Amino acid sequence: MHELILNEAHYSRVIEQVLAGAERFLWIATADIKDVHVEGPRGKFIPLLSVFADLVLQGVEIRLIHAKEPGPAFREDFDRFPALIESERFERILCPRMHMKVIVVDGRMAYVGSANLTGAGIGAKSPRRRNFEAGLLTDDPEVIEALMGELDTLYLGRYCHDCGRRDFCPDPIV
């Protein structure tokens, strides 16, 4: 299955259905990350970090790789979720060279596209403030395996030794 995801469908299809359905692990790579809010119980909007914390408490392992430090609103919300700070199931890596926008769920579904993990990127903003985004959702095992291999290589720091941006990296893996 290959499904084209356009504009606000990033929110309804990728965030609400695919990402929230993670049962074992969730890997996310994004260049930019902001304090995104999503619809929660009874229509109340909650930080996406709350969804991450709930997943971690349910036993889901989350890897989040992003290119730059998030802003103060993200950091303030992040500090409200001890599960993300204290659990070994949540890992966050900062890599200034990260420009991929990839989400892998349980090794069975993957999103690859243009959308950063921001409200404008995933379509969580009003229609006049959203970005125009495109991506593909797939369950193709070969594509998912290749994506996971690349993310794992990065996660393990195999690019760190020869990285041309090491002087700009606030927290090299190796």
Layout of SSEs?
Blueprint: E1 2-6, H1 9-18, E2 25-30, E3 37-39, E4 45-47, H2 48-57, E5 61-66, H3 72-78, H4 82-86, E6 90-94, E7 102-105, E8 109-113, H5 119-122, E9 134-138, H6 141-155
Parallel strand pairs: 2-5, 5-6
Antiparallel strand pairs: 1-9, 2-7, 3-4, 7-8, 8-9
Question: Any overview of this molecule?
Answer:
The chain has one domain (2-160): Endonuclease, Chain A. 29% of the residues lie in helices and 24% in strands. The chain is built from six helices and nine strands. The protein has a seven-stranded mixed sheet, with helices on both faces. The protein has a two-stranded antiparallel ribbon with strand order 3-4. It is α+β, with helices and mostly antiparallel strands. It is globular. The model has no long low-confidence stretch (mean pLDDT 89).
What brief labels describe this structure?
174 residues, alpha+beta, seven-stranded mixed β-sheet, two-stranded antiparallel ribbon, 9 strands, globular
Q: Could you provide a short overview of the structure?
A:
The protein is an alpha+beta fold and 174 residues long. It has a single domain (2-160), classed as 2-Layer Sandwich (Endonuclease, Chain A), CATH 3.30.870.10. It has 6 helices and 9 strands.
